[in-house]
């Protein structure tokens, strides 16, 4: 990966350039311009695509797997699910039908196949306004305002979840948030105390993938790689959780790759809906990267036997929306066959 290839220009997509009436392969390639705008852990963008006639195969790029932070590939599959959701949202907007096949072979990096069906009507629970948010959605790391999320917004969140196998908990009880915040601080300190974790995080900071200039990225890499900032990060992230109007948790009945891909789809749909409603989203993954703390999170969040998969903050904040850069589609592993 070359940091010089990272660009902000990929966010500027002209909707009217969709190749309506062109072969499905050309339409698929255009839809993938929206897929690559999906969020991913450390902005690692771990997806690769193969277009075969009317199908798009979505696989993961092992070189972009966070082997230290994400040893079980949970975040990798969630990231792939986010890209899949963007693809489907764009397909629906351009009235291209599709069918998704989830692949379960753990020895293969193929995650899902999307078969385009132009003669069928796409149908799902996605609100139509989500398409416009594909190029507007962003992640906020700021302290959120003390302003409750409206009940109708919470209800709409729950309505757009397509599968009974993925559940959403919206936590606003101060004591619960404080307890989860304490766990977040503990996770930050444990992760940052690990030199291999800091080296991996430093590498991604150094690529510029998080949006810093070349110089600041290199300085950030040096600081993160060589200094244990766990206590500072723990205090900061704990406060972010405790002060958020809502802490959201997605959980599943099974802890499989497919469940995690569907978790990513649900999260991205919620993030797009949040963007449409002008409130911000901020994922927090450190707790879930520690197996023993993931179990504690289930207890503190009250998920019962369901398995926590993705934790994030929701709330309002006054700030300019900024996007992290992306490798353009030409730089993403893409094969036409």
UniProtKB/TrEMBL annotation:
Keyword Mitochondrion: no
Record GO terms (molecular function): oxidoreductase activity
InterPro entries the record matches: Nitroreductase-like (IPR000415), Nitroreductase/BluB (IPR050627)
Stored SUPFAM superfamilies: FMN-dependent nitroreductase-like
Keyword set includes Repeat: no
Keywords: Flavoprotein, FMN, Oxidoreductase
NCBIfam families (alphabetical): Rv3131_FMN_oxido (NF047509)
Name of the protein described by the UniProt record: Acg family FMN-binding oxidoreductase
Lineage of origin: Archaea, Methanobacteriati, Methanobacteriota, Stenosarchaea group, Halobacteria
